[in-house]
């Protein structure tokens, strides 16, 4: 009996000790030294490496982390991309026999057949390009070169005083050091309050890279013009022949005297948020005005009058075609905010009024 009582007492003591030790395990180390809060800030890759090592997991675990990251990026990408609208294609009249700027190769007017295609409903925005750059770490050509062209009227006095030279034929353009898509007017500017504005300072190559990442492509010039015309035939603008129907502004252009006085009667001296002006009959925004848009085609001013199917422009060239004009366009010097109008730049050029939108084939 005495032995039994002693055994029970011993058992109770051991249990109590267990509870005490366990209590101290749970609470004391954390309260005493705070060791569990010590860690360095590491890159995601370093964290992945350590996690793999700590868990004794190697290739398989790293693969699942990579796969997870890829999945997250895929979701981010899908959330990022613009809505695309289906264009029916078919025959349409491209160009004009009444060119506003004949030397640009706006004519002759010719019959073009297009297969159906998709095109994005608005210009690619800063927010969208930021997602692309964050995920892919794409470095634009302006960032690589260290400068880009900015309209002088937008520059701060500080940046203006640092300028070395302007463009002889267009003195309102200056190459500005540190101007890029994140800093549209040079190093002292930002896009923070312009995330829904079109991205600027992207070269044709940058635009191409974005569209490729998106699983899309740049529109051909013919596709872009078809989309611009909104089903209307032989009209100047995406909405008709009158620049301001019922006295309303239908595009972000320049009002006043270029280049010294912009009255911004349409509400904007610079770019505007996408979709701020009325869409055309196809539901597409800012086809003319806001920013110029890169197309896939090489530049040529010579076109055949012959009926053509799905033209893709010349096979080679030195410049790429851009369409639609920008917030800087005024009839007095740049009457190019018409669907038939066109202009060009070298594929590595970038500027504070040039952006893009993507298109895609329809795969059934
Ligand atoms: Ca304007
Ligand atoms: Ca545009």
UniProtKB/TrEMBL annotation:
Compartment list: Endoplasmic reticulum lumen
Q: Where is the signal peptide?
A: 1-24
Which domain of life does the UniProt lineage start with?
Answer: Eukaryota
Keyword flag Signal:
yes
Q: Which UniProt keywords apply?
A: Signal
Give the main localization category: endoplasmic reticulum
Which molecular function terms from Gene Ontology are attached?
A: formylglycine-generating oxidase activity
Task: Please state which protein family the record places this protein in.
Answer: Belongs to the sulfatase-modifying factor family.
The protein's name: Sulfatase-modifying factor enzyme-like domain-containing protein
Q: Which organism is it from?
A: Tachysurus vachellii
């Amino acid at each position: 009996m005495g032995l039994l009582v002693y055994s029970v007492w011993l058992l109770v003591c051991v249990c109590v000790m267990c509870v005490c030790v366990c209590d101290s395990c749970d609470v004391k180390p954390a309260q005493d030294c705070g060791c569990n809060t010590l860690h360095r800030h590491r890159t995601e890759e370093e964290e992945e490496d350590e996690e793999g090592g700590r868990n004794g997991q190697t290739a398989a675990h790293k693969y699942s982390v990579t796969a997870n990251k890829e999945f997250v990026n895929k979701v981010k990408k899908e959330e990022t991309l613009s809505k695309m609208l289906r264009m029916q294609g078919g025959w349409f009249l491209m160009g004009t026999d009444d060119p506003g700027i004949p030397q640009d190769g706006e004519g002759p007017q010719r019959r073009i057949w297009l297969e159906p295609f998709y095109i994005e409903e608005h210009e690619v925005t800063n927010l969208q390009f930021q997602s692309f750059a964050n995920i892919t770490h794409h470095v634009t050509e302006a960032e690589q070169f260290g400068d880009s062209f900015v309209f002088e009227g937008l520059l701060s006095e500080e940046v203006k005083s640092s300028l070395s030279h302007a463009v002889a034929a267009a003195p309102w353009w200056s190459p500005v050091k540190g101007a890029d898509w994140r800093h549209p007017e040079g190093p002292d500017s930002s896009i923070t309050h312009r995330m829904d504005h079109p991205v600027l300072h992207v070269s044709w190559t940058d635009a191409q890279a974005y569209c490729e990442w998106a699983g899309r492509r740049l529109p051909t010039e013919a596709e872009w013009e078809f989309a611009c015309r909104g089903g209307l035939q032989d009209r100047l603008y995406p909405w008709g022949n009158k620049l301001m129907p019922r006295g309303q502004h239908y595009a972000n252009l320049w009002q006043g005297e270029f280049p010294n006085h912009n009255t911004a009667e349409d509400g904007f001296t610079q770019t505007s948020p996408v979709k701020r002006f009325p869409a055309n009959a196809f539901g597409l925004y800012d086809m003319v005005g806001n920013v110029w848009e890169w197309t896939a085609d090489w530049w040529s001013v010579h076109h055949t009058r012959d009926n053509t199917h799905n033209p893709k422009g010349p096979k080679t060239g030195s410049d790429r075609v851009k369409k639609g004009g920008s917030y800087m366009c005024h009839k007095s010097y740049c009457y190019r905010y018409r669907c038939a109008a066109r202009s060009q730049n070298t594929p590595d050029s970038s500027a504070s009024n040039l952006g893009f939108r993507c298109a895609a084939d329809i795969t059934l």
